[in-house]
Specification:
The complex is a heterodimer of chains A (757) and B (474).
Chain A: H1 6-10, E1 27-33, E2 39-45, H2 47-50, E3 55-59, E4 84-85, E5 91-97, H3 100-107, E6 111-116, H4 123-128, E7 137-141, H5 144-150, E8 153-161, E9 173-178, E10 184-188, H6 193-204, E11 211-215, H7 230-243, E12 247-250, H8 253-259, E13 266-274, E14 280-292, H9 298-307, E15 317-326, H10 340-357, H11 362-368, H12 388-398, H13 401-414, E16 418-431, E17 440-447, E18 453-457, H14 466-478, E19 485-487, E20 490-491, H15 506-533, E21 540-543, E22 546-549, E23 552-556, H16 558-567, E24 573-579, E25 584-586, E26 591-593, E27 597-610, E28 616-625, H17 633-652, E29 683-688, H18 713-726, H19 740-747
Parallel strand pairs in A: 1-12, 10-11, 14-15, 18-19, 28-29
Antiparallel strand pairs in A: 1-5, 2-4, 2-6, 3-5, 7-15, 8-13, 9-10, 9-12, 11-20, 13-14, 16-27, 17-18, 17-24, 21-22, 22-23, 25-26, 27-28
Chain B: E1 2-6, E2 9-13, H1 21-28, E3 47-54, E4 57-64, E5 77-79, H2 91-98, H3 108-120, H4 127-133, H5 145-158, H6 166-172, H7 183-188, E6 202-204, H8 210-213, H9 215-220, E7 223-225, E8 235-238, E9 241-245, H10 250-255, H11 257-262, H12 266-271, H13 276-279, H14 284-290, H15 296-302, E10 307-312, E11 318-322, E12 327-329, E13 332-333, E14 339-347, E15 354-360, E16 371-380, E17 383-392, E18 399-400, H16 402-408, H17 415-428, H18 439-457, H19 464-473
Parallel strand pairs in B: 1-5, 6-7
Antiparallel strand pairs in B: 1-2, 3-4, 3-5, 8-9, 9-14, 10-11, 10-14, 12-13, 15-16, 16-17, 17-18
Helix pairs in contact in B: 2-5, 16-17, 17-18
The chains are: A alpha+beta (757), B alpha+beta (474).
C-alpha cells in the first residue's frame, strides 16, 4: 500500500502549519535571540523597536504568567533568557507584528547589552571544568581489569563525531489562537503534541485542559521536533493569550539553524582488547556528549549511547562511561538514532584501528564477534532473536563479499588516480523508549453509521508512513477496505497523554492501540451479527465482502452490519490502550529488559575516491535488513534508503563549524551541506532477511525508522580503506565527518618516521 | 505595474519588483503549494516554472521563486504546482507516487515542478537529464533512490514526445492541463514593462545573490531590472570575438552551440555550477559584479582572456577593461555607481583550444567551491604558450595567476614542470581559513587542481604514476 498522503503531496495539496488559511488579524512573530554565547544580560532596550508601525508587542520573560521553564526531562531551560544567556541563539524576546517583514525589521532595532563570560564549546573542555547536564551513566559487564590481562592485543585511541542539523525542510512552525473561555488552540509542527500541551500549560499558568494541540503532519522531523517544537508553540500561545489575536511563528531557516539544537557531537576514548583469535574480550569507552546549554533530551540520549555501545557484538567484559557535558551551544536534541549512532561509531572505530594494526580486514574481527541469540547484552537483556549472523551471512552470499573485496583490490592495484574502498557495517538497535513509562499509546476509533471509519491516535505523521501503517492495521482488523479508513489529525483532546512519535516506535505503539480498539469493535459487530442471524459468534467472520458464516456469505454487507449494530444501540466507538509488556530496566544497577526487541542488519559499502581532488562517490550500498514480517515494503524500503542517506550525510559532508566564541558559522544551506540527488549512492540494494518477526512488533513488522541510519557509518570506514590503499603511511584516525577536505589532507599526509618509499 | 500570467490567471500587481516571487505566490495569490524552505535557493522547495514567449512559442524553465524578483515575472507565465494539476495525476506525479518518491511531502511540489520543467524541455529526455533537472531539489526523507526510479519511468514515457511542440504533446498526454495551449496568445497580449528611471537604484539581474543577502532592503528599494533587457541577452560572434550579454544566464551559456563548439566539455563544467533552477536565473553580469572571490563564471572566463564592456547609465559612455583588472579588492570593483557591465568579450581563438575548468567543493554539486580554477594554453614544438591560469578561493579576489602562468610559458608540460610550477603558485596565492576549508587544504587543493589541469590537458606528457609518486612525496 502506498503512503496515503502521497496523492495530496504530489498535487501540493497537503497542508502544513504555514499553509493553514490565516484567521483575520493574524499576527506574525519573530524571535530576538542572544548574539552572545554566554553572559549576563545588563540591559535590554526594546523601545525603538516597539515604536515601529505595525509592531504589536515585544514579549520577554516578564510577560510569562506561569513558569518560565520548558525543560522536559530536567527543568533547566527558560523559554526566554532571564538574567543570563547560555548560548548564542537563545531566545530573549518575541517580536509580534502585523507581518513577518515588520517583525524582522523591528527585531533589528532591539538593543541588548551583555557582559560576556567565557564560552565553552567542546565536550572535553566542559568535562575538565566539571560542567555536566546530568549525572554520568555507566554500564559494566564481566571483569574488565581481569580481562585486560587475558588480551593478546590492546589498542587505545580517540574518536570524534560531529553534530548534525535535522534540516527538516519545513522549519519549526506554530500557529496559536484563542478558543472561547480563554482556552488556546495550538497548531504545531511537533512530534510531541502532549509535550507542547504540558509545557504551554505550565508557561501560561493554565490547566492542561485549556490547551489543545493539533498536528496534521510535519514537513520532516527526524527528532528535531520531538522537544524543540515546544518553545515556539509556547511563544505563539503566549502571544495569542496576551494579545487576544491569532499568532503565527514560522522560523526563517537562518533562525532555525542558529537557535535549535542538533545531533550531539561526541568525543570518546576507547580501549579494546582482543584474543589471539581476534575475539574481543574487553572494551572500555568514555563518551563525552556535547549536550549544549540545557538538558533537553540529552540524558535519555546518553542512555541510548550506553545501550548501543557494543553495537552488534558480544563482548564479555565491558565498561562504558558516558558524560553529558554542558556547553554554550544550543541544547542538542533527539536525532534519528538518538545517541546510538555516536556510540556505534566508537566501537567500529576501535575495531577498524585494531584491524589496521593487526593488518587484517575489519570484517574478520567483526564477524568473529557477532552476537548470537544465546548471548546477553551488557545491560543484561538476552539477545533473543539476534539475527545479525544471519543477516551478515546472507549479505556475504547474495552480494558476494569476497568477490567484491577482490575487485576492489584489483582496481586499486591497477589505478593510481582513483582508489576504491569497501567496508561492512552491522547494526543492532533496540526498540522501545528507554524511559519505560513512555511505552504506551492510545487510539480512538469511530465507526460511523455509513460504515466509514475515523481513527485518531497519538502518532504524528512526518513522512515515515505511520498513518498508512495504521490504516493497514485498522483495515485488516476490521476487515474493511482501506479506503473506508481515515486517519484524523493528532489532537490532544481526542487522544491524551501521548508519547512523542519517536524512537522508531510510532507504528508499534499506536498501531497496537488501534489494533486493540478495532479488535473490540470487531467482536461487538460479530456479536451483533450473530444475534441477528441467530448464530454463534464463533461462526461469524468479518470479511472484505461483508459478514460470513463458516466461510460463506451471510448476505450482510459491512455497511449493513454497522447500521444494524447502531440500531441495536451498540457502541461503535472504542479507545484502545497499549503498553509494551515485559520491559523493565533498573537504572541503579543498569540492568534489565529495556527493549521489546532489536532490529538487525548488515551493509556492505563500496566507495570510489578521486585521489587528485579528494572527492568521492558512494558506489554501492548492499544491505540485508531484518524487517521481521514487513507489512509495507514500499514504506519500509523508503525508510531504509532515507535513513541510510542521512547516515551517509552525517559521516561525510554534514559539518558544523562554530567559532571559539560559540557562534555558529554553518547556519544556512549554503554553508551546511546535506546530501543532494548526486550524493546518493550509485546503487542501494536491500534484501529483507526472511524472518517471522517478533510479536511485540505491529503485525510482526519491525520498527524501521532509525536503525538503517547507522549503515551510513560504513561509508566512513570504506573511505578510510580507500585512503589507506593510496597512502599506506596514513594511520587511521576517527574524526567524522570525513569531508573531501579531510580526505584530501589524509591522502597526502605523511607522518614523521613513516615516510613513504 | 507588473503583469504576468500565474497558472491560468492574468495578474497585475503594484507590489515592489524587488520583492520575492515566492512571497507573492504564497501571500498575495494564496497558493500554498509552493513551499518556503531556505530562502536562499539551496533547497528547491519553492521551485516554479517560468515560461517566456519566444518566436510564438513559450519556453519553460524551472526557477527558485524565493530568489526571483517579482519584477522579473513581468510578461511571463509563472506556473506553480496548482497550475499543473490535471483531473487525474500527471505521469510525473504518478511516477513519484508509485515509486514512493514522497515521504513528508514538503519538498515534493518542487520536485514535481522540476520534473515538469524536464518534461517541457527540448533536449533528449534521458534519465540523467531528469536527475539534472532536480539538481536543486533537496529531499531530506527519501534518500533520492525512489525519485531516481521515478525519473527513469518518466523518461521512458517522454521518449515519444513531439520535440516541436512539447507543451501541446504534454497536454495531450495529461502531463499538463489544457489551458497551457492558450498561453502563447495570452502572453503576447501583455505589454512590455515601463522602466523606472530613478537614480539610486538597486541593479538586479537574476536576483540569485541579492535576494539572499538583502531580501528586505531589495523588496523596498527602487530597482533596475536587467534580466529581460534584450540588449544584454545575446551570445554572438563578430570579427572573431565572442560577445556575451550581461543578462545571459548560466544555462544559456551552457546550452549555447557557439560556446559548446568552442569548449567541448562546457556542459560538464557548468553542471558543477549551482543547480539547474539557479543556473536558469543567475546571469553572467551578476556573477561578475557580485565580485565573489570564488565566482565560478569569473574564474572560467578569466582563463579565456575575457574583457568586460562597461556602460555609464548617466553619461552613456562606454569603456572596456580586461576581466582580470576589474577586481580591486575583496568585493571591490573598478566601477562607478552609475556603471553597469553590458558584455563580455573574448577572442574565439583559431584552432584547438586547450582549456580546462576544475572545481572542488564539499558537496560535488550545488555548492560553493573551496577552490576553483581554469586554465587555457597552447602548445608549440612541445612547449607551452599563451598560458592563462585563474583560481578562486585563494585570494580576496578571483585570482588571475600571472606569475604562475608566466612560469609555465615556454616550458614543456610534465611532472617536473607541475612541481616546480607549484612553488610559484604557492607564492602567488594567499588563502585564508574559512567555512570552505582551511588554508592548508586550499593550498593543497590549489596544487592538486594544477595537476588536474595537466592530467586533462596534456595526458601524453603527464606520467600519472610518476605524478602521484611525486605529489605524495612532496
Amino acid at each position: 500500500m502506498k503512503n496515503i498522503d502521497s496523492i495530496s503531496h504530489v498535487k501540493g495539496r497537503s497542508v502544513y502549519v504555514d499553509d493553514i488559511p490565516e484567521r483575520a488579524g493574524t499576527l506574525h512573530a519573530v524571535v530576538f535571540h542572544s548574539p552572545c554565547a554566554h553572559g549576563i544580560i545588563k540591559g535590554l532596550d526594546v523601545s525603538e523597536a516597539l515604536n515601529n508601525n505595525g509592531v504589536h508587542a515585544i514579549l520577554t520573560a516578564s510577560d510569562i504568567p506561569g513558569e518560565n521553564q520548558i525543560g522536559g526531562v530536567i527543568p533547566d531551560e527558560p523559554l526566554f533568557a532571564d538574567g543570563k544567556v547560555e548560548f548564542a541563539g537563545q531566545p530573549v524576546a518575541l517580536v509580534v507584528a502585523s507581518d513577518e517583514a515588520t517583525a524582522r525589521k523591528a527585531r533589528r532595532l532591539i538593543k541588548i547589552e551583555v557582559e560576556e563570560l567565557e564560552a565553552v564549546t567542546g565536550a572535553r573542555e566542559a568535562y575538565k571544568k566539571s560542567m555536566f547536564l546530568s549525572p554520568p551513566g555507566i554500564f559494566i559487564s564481566g571483569d574488565i581489569e581481569k580481562a585486560w590481562r587475558e588480551c593478546e592485543y590492546i589498542f587505545e585511541g580517540q574518536c570524534e563525531s560531529g553534530g548534525q542539523e535535522h534540516l527538516y525542510i519545513e522549519g519549526q512552525a506554530s500557529y496559536a489562537y484563542l478558543n472561547e473561555d480563554g482556552a488556546i488552540r495550538i497548531i504545531s509542527s511537533t512530534q510531541g503534541p502532549t509535550h507542547v500541551q504540558k509545557t504551554a500549560a505550565a508557561v501560561l499558568g493554565l490547566p492542561m485542559h485549556r490547551i489543545e494541540v493539533d498536528v496534521t503532519r510535519l514537513g520532516g522531523g527526524f527528532g528535531g521536533k520531538e522537544d524543540q517544537a515546544t518553545p515556539y508553540a509556547c511563544m505563539a500561545a503566549l502571544a495569542a493569550m496576551r494579545l487576544k489575536k491569532a499568532v503565527k511563528i514560522v522560523l526563517h531557516r537562518l533562525d532555525d539553524m542558529i537557535m535549535t539544537g542538533k545531533r550531539h557531537p561526541y568525543s570518546a576514548d576507547y580501549k579494546i582488547g582482543l584474543s589471539a583469535g581476534l575475539k574481543i574480550i574487553a572494551y572500555q569507552a568514555r563518551l563525552y556528549q556535547n549536550g549544549g546549554a540545557a538538558a533537553d533530551l540529552s540524558p535519555a540520549i546518553l542512555d541510548r549511547s550506553l545501550f548501543h555501545s557494543t553495537n552488534a557484538y558480544y563482548i564479555p567484559n565491558t565498561e562504558v562511561t558516558a558524560y553529558s557535558c554542558k556547553t554554550n551551544l544550543p541544547p542538542n536534541t533527539a536525532f534519528r538514532g538518538f545517541g546510538g549512532p555516536q556510540a556505534m561509531f566508537v566501537i567500529e572505530s576501535a575495531i577498524a584501528r585494531a584491524a589496521h594494526e593487526l593488518k587484517t580486514e575489519a570484517r574478520t574481527i567483526q564477524e568473529r564477534n557477532f552476537l548470537s541469540s544465546k548471548d546477553h547484552f551488557q545491560y543484561g537483556q538476552k539477545a533473543a532473536g539476534a539475527s545479525i549472523r544471519k543477516c551478515y551471512k546472507l549479505a556475504a552470499k547474495e552480494f558476494q563479499i569476497e568477490r567484491l573485496s577482490k575487485e576492489v583490490r584489483e582496481f586499486n592495484s591497477k589505478n593510481g588516480l582513483r582508489k576504491k574502498g569497501i567496508a561492512m557495517m552491522p547494526v543492532c538497535f533496540g526498540i522501545s523508549f528507554t524511559s519505560k513509562h513512555m511505552n504506551q499509546a492510545r487510539a480512538l476509533v469511530h465507526i460511523y453509521q455509513d460504515g466509514s471509519v475515523g481513527v485518531s491516535t497519538g502518532a504524528v505523521e512526518m513522512g515515515q508512513g505511520v498513518n498508512t501503517k495504521i490504516v493497514q492495521v485498522v483495515a485488516k482488523t476490521l476487515a474493511v477496505d482501506p479506503g473506508l479508513v481515515r486517519i484524523e489529525t493528532t489532537n490532544t483532546t481526542r487522544v491524551s497523554n501521548t508519547s512523542p512519535t519517536a524512537a522508531s516506535s510510532g507504528a508499534d505503539l499506536n498501531g497496537k492501540a488501534a489494533q486493540i480498539a478495532c479488535s473490540r469493535l470487531a467482536s461487538r459487530l460479530k456479536r451483533a451479527a450473530a444475534n441477528k442471524l441467530g448464530k454463534e459468534i464463533r461462526d461469524i467472520e468479518l470479511s472484505g465482502k461483508g459478514i460470513r458464516i463458516n466461510g460463506k456469505s451471510a448476505g450482510i454487507s459491512w455497511k449493513e452490519a454497522v447500521k444494524y449494530a447502531y440500531m441495536q444501540r451498540i457502541c461503535l466507538s472504542e479507545q484502545g490502550h497499549y503498553s509494551t509488556p515485559g520491559i523493565d530496566f533498573n537504572r541503579s544497577i543498569s540492568k534489565g529488559q529495556p527493549f521489546a526487541y532489536h532490529v538487525y542488519g548488515a551493509a556492505i559499502v563500496t566507495v570510489n575516491v578521486d585521489c587528485i581532488r579528494g572527492t568521492y562517490e558512494v558506489e554501492r550500498v548492499n544491505i540485508v535488513h531484518d524487517f521481521g514480517n514487513c507489512m509495507n515494503t514500499l514504506i519500509d524500503m523508503g525508510q531504509v534508503e532515507g535513513a541510510l542517506m542521512q547516515g551517509i550525510g552525517w559521516m561525510t559532508m554534514e559539518e558544523f563549524s562554530w567559532d571559539k566564541n560559540g557562534h555558529i558559522l554553518s547556519k544556512s544551506l549554503s554553508t551546511y551541506k546535506v546530501p543532494d540527488i548526486y550524493s546518493a549512492p550509485g546503487e542501494v540494494n536491500c534484501i529483507p532477511l526472511p524472518s517471522k518477526g517478533p510479536a511485540k512488533a505491529i503485525l510482526k513488522s519491525k520498527a524501521v525508522g532509525e536503525p538503517p541510519l547507522m549503515y551510513g557509518i560504513g561509508v566512513y570506514f570504506a573511505l578510510q580503506n580507500a585512503i589507506i590503499s593510496f597512502n599506506p603511511s596514513y594511520r587511521p584516525d576517527f574524526n567524522a565527518p570525513l569531508t573531501p577536505e579531510k580526505v584530501l589532507m589524509r591522502l597526502y599526509s605523511s607522518r614523521p618516521g613513516k615516510k613513504r618509499s | 505595474m507588473i503583469s504576468f500570467i500565474l497558472n491560468d490567471k492574468e495578474v497585475s500587481t503594484e507590489t515592489g519588483p524587488g520583492s520575492s516571487l515566492l512571497d507573492f505566490i504564497r501571500r498575495e495569490a494564496s497558493l500554498p503549494g509552493t513551499k518556503t524552505g531556505c530562502r536562499e535557493g539551496d533547497c528547491g522547495a519553492c521551485t516554479v516554472l517560468e515560461g517566456k514567449l519566444k518566436g510564438g512559442r513559450v519556453e519553460y524553465r524551472s526557477i527558485v521563486s524565493c530568489l526571483s524578483p517579482l519584477g522579473n515575472a513581468h510578461g511571463k507565465h509563472i506556473v506553480t504546482i496548482e497550475g499543473i494539476n490535471c483531473k487525474t495525476l500527471s505521469p510525473a506525479q504518478e511516477a513519484i507516487v508509485k515509486n514512493g518518491g514522497t515521504q513528508c511531502g514538503f519538498c515534493t511540489p518542487g520536485f514535481i515542478l522540476s520534473l515538469t520543467a524536464f518534461s517541457l524541455d527540448s533536449q533528449s529526455p534521458e534519465p540523467e537529464r531528469a536527475i539534472e533537472a532536480m539538481s536543486g531539489n533537496i529531499c531530506r526523507c527519501t534518500g533520492y533512490k525512489s525519485i531516481e526510479r521515478a525519473a527513469v519511468s518518466i523518461s521512458r514515457i517522454l521518449k515519444n514526445r513531439n520535440p516541436d511542440n512539447p507543451a501541446g504533446w504534454l497536454v495531450s498526454q495529461g502531463f499538463l492541463p489544457p489551458y497551457f495551449t492558450s498561453i502563447p496568445e495570452r502572453l503576447a497580449a501583455i505589454e512590455a514593462p515601463t522602466r523606472t528611471t530613478g537614480r539610486r537604484r538597486t541593479i538586479i539581474g537574476g536576483g540569485t545573490d541579492i535576494l539572499v543577502q538583502k531580501p528586505d532592503e531589495t523588496s523596498e528599494s527602487d530597482t533596475l531590472l536587467l534580466f529581460d533587457d534584450n540588449d544584454l541577452k545575446e551570445i554572438e560572434i563578430k570579427d572573431g570575438i565572442i560577445h556575451i550579454g550581461a543578462s545571459v544566464t548560466t544555462s544559456e551559456i551552457m546550452h549555447s552551440s557557439l560556446m559548446r563548439a568552442r569548449i567541448p566539455r562546457l556542459y560538464e563544467y557548468f553542471r558543477l555550477i549551482s543547480s539547474e533552477a539557479v543556473r536558469n536565473m543567475g546571469t553572467i553580469g551578476g556573477n561578475i559584479c557580485n565580485a565573489s572571490p570564488i565566482a565560478d563564471l569569473v574564474i572560467f572566463f578569466m582563463a579565456l582572456n575575457t574583457s568586460v564592456s562597461i556602460k555609464n547609465l548617466v553619461s552613456k559612455q562606454q569603456r572596456s577593461l580586461p576581466l582580470k583588472a576589474l577586481y580591486k579588492g575583496y568585493k571591490k570593483l573598478d566601477m562607478l555607481e552609475d556603471e553597469i557591465v553590458t558584455h563580455l568579450t573574448f577572442p574565439a581563438a583559431q584552432g584547438k583550444l586547450l582549456f580546462n575548468f576544475e572545481k572542488v567543493s564539499k558537496r560535488k554539486m550545488l555548492d560553493i567551491a573551496s577552490v576553483n580554477s581554469a586554465m587555457s594554453a597552447g602548445i608549440r614544438n612541445g612547449l607551452l604558450e599563451d598560458v592563462i591560469l585563474s583560481m578562486g578561493g585563494v585570494a580576496p579576489v578571483p585570482l588571475y595567476l600571472e606569475k604562475t602562468a608566466g612560469f609555465l610559458t615556454g616550458r614543456s608540460p610534465g611532472v617536473e614542470t607541475i612541481l616546480e610550477c607549484n612553488s610559484v603558485l604557492q607564492k602567488e596565492i594567499s588563502p585564508i581559513s574559512d567555512i570552505r576549508g582551511s588554508k592548508e587544504y586550499k593550498r593543497l587543493l590549489a596544487r592538486q587542481l594544477l595537476a588536474a589541469h595537466f592530467i586533462l590537458l596534456f595526458p601524453e606528457h603527464t606520467d600519472k604514476d610518476q605524478l602521484i609518486k611525486r605529489l605524495s612525496e612532496a
